[in-house]
Fold each of these.
Amino acid sequence: MIKAAFTKETDFFETRGVTYLDPAVTFTELNLMKKQLYEAFNETLQITEDESDFAVEQGWKAMELFDTEMQERGRMILEQVEKENRIAILMIGRPYHSDPGLNHRVLEEFQVLGYPILSMRSIPFQKTRNGCAAFSATI
């Protein structure tokens, strides 16, 4: 989507000497992500597999910390609206749907009206023994 906007009629990356890389990367399996990112960037960045793996592991830890913090904030919002008998709005969509040009500021309008907005990543859940997600909040 991004590349198409810059390459439709003129390749703005090429005219500026920029190499545009857009590898497919999984965000659900750490070892596969390591492999995909190393294969995509090792030549361009001139890094070793160990360096790439270390960077991916650090990014993975940061992503897990972010998800934990988002879920804790989501839990707090859900507990608050339940206690106050209010409504929260769950936004279900892709990350680019948070672009004001695509969503026409609908989320901001709901927030102005006092409705908390939750994303899918902010819904608290726990993994069960079989690896499935189980929501852990009373909604």
Amino acid sequence: MTKKIDKPLPDCFSREVRIGLRYWAPAILYAGLIIFLSSDPSPERHFPDEFAIFNDKIVHVFEYAILGILCYRVFQFGAGPGPSQFSVYLAILTAGIFGLTDEIHQSFVPNRIADKLDFLADCTGALIGSISWEWLHKTGRIYDHCEES
């Protein structure tokens, strides 16, 4: 069964604005959320004690799997026909570079460090997210595109 996840935006927006809102805005806002959260010198204080059972690397994989999905959607549907041919590769590359810059950013935050294993977990998450989303899309398990003229 195919699931449609996008709702049409009003026709008062141009096609470019609709594409920006549908594909680019979620990726950019989510990347901003990652930077905001990584700017906190003590992020563990925001999570309940039950959260401690999750390893930090699992959190990184999950966090960047979402970013990988959002980047895949940008390159597959929001960046034109050229990039859509390489959307998985571009999504992994973009999310990976973002993960690297986030680790560098964390090295300047008090009580935080840049961790190579966190970067590896970020890239693993981006890989899992973008490949999984592509598979769901290509096999028709999810409908993730609104046909627009």
